[in-house]
Amino acid sequence: MPAAQAAAARELRERRRNVLLLYVLSLLSTTSNGSMTFVLPLNLDRLGHPLPLVGTIVALIGLGSLLSRVSGGAWYQLARGRWLTMASFALMGCSTIALGLNDIVPFQALFACLHGFSFGLATTFLLALLIDIRPPEDSAATTMSWYTSAIAAGYALSALLGAQSIESLGYGPAFFTSGLVALAAAVLTLTLRLPREAPPPAAIDPHVPPPPVGRLRTVLSLPAGVWLGTLLIFYLTFMADTHQTYYPIYAVGIGISVGTIGLLKVAHSIASTGVRFAGAGLFQIVPVAVVNHTMTIVMALALISLPLATSDTILVVLFVILGTCRGLLRVTSATMVAEERRRPGVSAGLVSGVYNAGADLADLFSPPLVGALAAVLTIPTTFTVVGIALPAIYYTVWFVVRTRRQRARVHI
C-alpha cells in the first residue's frame, strides 16, 4: 500500500507540473499572438496601404484561426499532443518572423493567415491537453481560472512587447521578437512529460450512448454543455468586441478625450485579468452557475448603460464591470466545456476546437454586423439592441437544453 500511495503521489505531482507548464505555454501563445497583431496593422499603415486593405489582412488572422479549430481538434490525441503543439508553435514563430522579411501584400496576407492557423492549432491543443491531464482531484473551475488568467496576462504583456520592439528595433525586428516568443514556446513544449492515454472519465452516465462514428456527426453529437459553453464565449466576445470597437468612436464624437478612452481600456483590462486570478478562490464559495447567470445579465446591462453615463467616474465603473464580467464568463464557459470531458466518448480535442471557434466566429462577425447596425440605428441604439438580443438568444438555447435534460431524467 505505501508503494502504491507513493506512485499515486508521484503521478499527481507530474500532472500538476504539466498543468503549470501548460499555463506558461498559454501565456507565451497570447504574448506572441498579441504582439504580432499589435505590430501588423501599424506596419501596414506605415507602408501606406488603405484602411480597408489593412482590415482585410488583419481579418485573415481570425479566419486562419477559425479554419484550424475543428480540424486541429480532430487530429489531437494525448499521445501525440506534445509534438502537435510543438509543431504548431514552430509554424507560428516562423510565419510571424516571415512577416518582417517582405512587405508585398500577397506575402503579408499569406503569412498573416498562416499565423492565425498555427495560433488556432496551438491554443486548441493546449486546452485539450489541459482538459486531459488535469488531476481529477482538482476543481475544473479553479484550473480554468488559472488557464484563462495566463491567457489574459499574455495579452497584457503583448502590447508592451510590441510597442517597445517597434520603438527600440523597428518593424522588421519587432516581428522577429514576436516570433521568437513562439519558438521559445515550441522548445519549452518538449519538456512536457505526458501519459500515453487520457485518464478515464470521472463519471460515466450509463444512459448516455457513445457518439456516432464520423467526424462531422461526432462534432454535431457533442454534449449540449459544450455548445452552451461555445455560445457563451461567442456571447462574451461579441459583447467585448462591440464596446471596444465602437464606444471609442462614439466617445470621441461626444467630446470625450482619447486619453480618457485609453484609461477606460486599462481599467477594463486590469479588471478582466485580475478577476480571473480571484476566480480560483471565488468558485470555492459561489457555484459556477450562479456566477455565470449573474455576469451574463450584468454584462448586457453595462453595455446598454455605456451611452447613458454622465461622468468619467461612472464610465470607469462600467468598464470595470464589463472587464469583470468578461473575465469571469471566460472562466465559467471554459469550465462548462471541461466538465463535459467526463462523458464517455467525448474527445478533448474536438471540445477544445469547437469551444475556441466560438470566439473566432464572434471576432469575425461582430465588427461588420455591429457597424452595419450602427450606421442605420446609431451607436447607442445598437448597444441596446445587442444588449437585449444576445442574452435573449443565449437564454432561449439554455432554456431548450434545460427542458430537454429534465425530460430525459423523467424518462430515465
Q: CATH homologous superfamily name of the largest domain? A: MFS general substrate transporter like domains
Range of strand content: under 5%
Major β-sheet annotation: none
Q: Which fold does the CATH topology of the largest domain refer to? A: Growth Hormone, Chain: A
The average pLDDT is 82
Quick overview of this protein structure:
The chain has helices at 2-46, 51-75, 81-99, 105-133, 140-169, 171-189, 215-220, 224-253, 258-282, 288-305, 312-339, 348-377, 379-411.
Question: What does this entry look like structurally?
Answer:
This protein is mainly alpha-helical and 412 residues long. The protein folds into 2 domains: 7-192, Growth Hormone, Chain: A (Up-down Bundle), CATH 1.20.1250; 215-412, MFS general substrate transporter like domains (Growth Hormone, Chain: A, Up-down Bundle), CATH 1.20.1250. It has helices at 2-46, 51-75, 81-99, 105-133, 140-169, 171-189, 215-220, 224-253, 258-282, 288-305, 312-339, 348-377, 379-411. α8 (224-253) runs parallel beside α12. The longest helix is centred in the first third of the chain and has 45 residues, at 2-46. It starts with a helix and ends with a helix. The model is unreliable at 200-214 (pLDDT under 50).
